[in-house]
Design a protein that fits this description.
Blueprint (H helix, E strand, L loop, with lengths): L2 H12 L3 H25 L12 H4 L2 E8 L2 E8 L4 H8 L18 E4 L2 E4 L12 E3 L12 H8 L9 H14 L5 H7 L11 H11 L1
Parallel strand pairs: 1-5
Antiparallel strand pairs: 1-2, 3-4, 3-5
Helix pairs in contact: 5-8
Length: about 210
């Protein structure tokens, strides 16, 4: 009997062959690599991008200071970057949602100087010095804003994707009109499209906060 046959016979008795051992090792490395990649995707940078990514990029933008949720943040922006892109990709404030990206759905609504605004339709470079409030700014320290709590209590959401923008529209409305009528509420969120709730829950929630 050849040496190779003798070795295979020993492996068969032990229940482990070179083929199964190598296959298991490769599979384990693949799973480990996938897990490491997934973890890396969950780790967002803790600081905004201040310096331009390339010399070429520097020619089309500059570092500005944006006041977001009460904090002044230096951030490099190119001249054509929208506020939506800058909030999500540079400042990692992903509560402001990217949906239609052309001003039709309201998912990216923020409040600028006390008025609701579509972040996808305003340039970041034009907002230096403005007071910008995003959905993250409504719950500092993790304590929910009364509007957020009312949306939960009144089941005013389904998939939830449009809800941050709708809540920001509601806040802008209630800051201006603390006791709105139902018609006022409907007008206030008319720019926010929702495919799930039928608007009954959100209207009820906003009305209860008003009361």
């Amino acid at each position: 009997m050849s040496e190779e046959k003798k070795e295979e016979k020993k492996e068969a008795k032990s229940g482990v062959s070179r083929r199964t051992f190598i296959g298991g090792t490769v599979a384990g490395l693949a799973v480990g690599a996938a897990a490491a990649y997934g973890a890396s995707q969950l780790m967002a940078p803790s600081k905004p991008t201040v310096a331009p990514p390339t010399e070429e990029g520097a020619a089309y933008g500059k570092t500005i200071t944006l006041k977001v949720n009460g904090t002044s943040l230096p951030v490099f922006v190119q001249s054509n970057w929208t506020l939506l892109y800058t909030l999500r990709e540079q400042l990692k404030l992903t509560g402001t949602k990217l949906s239609c990206d052309y001003g039709d759905c309201g998912a990216c609504t923020v409040i600028i100087n006390g008025k609701s605004a579509l972040a996808c339709m305003t340039l970041a470079i034009e907002n230096e010095g403005n007071d910008i409030l995003t959905i993250e700014g409504l719950s500092p320290g993790g304590k929910l804003h009364p509007i957020q709590q009312a949306f939960i209590d009144n089941h005013a959401y389904s998939c939830g994707y449009c809800i941050p923008g709708m809540i920001m529209s509601a806040k802008a409305l209630l800051d201006k009109n603390p006791s709105p009528s139902e018609d006022d509420v409907r007008a206030g969120i008319s720019g926010n499209l929702c495919r799930c709730t039928g608007y009954v829950g959100p209207i009820r929630a906003i009305m209860k906060v008003g009361k």
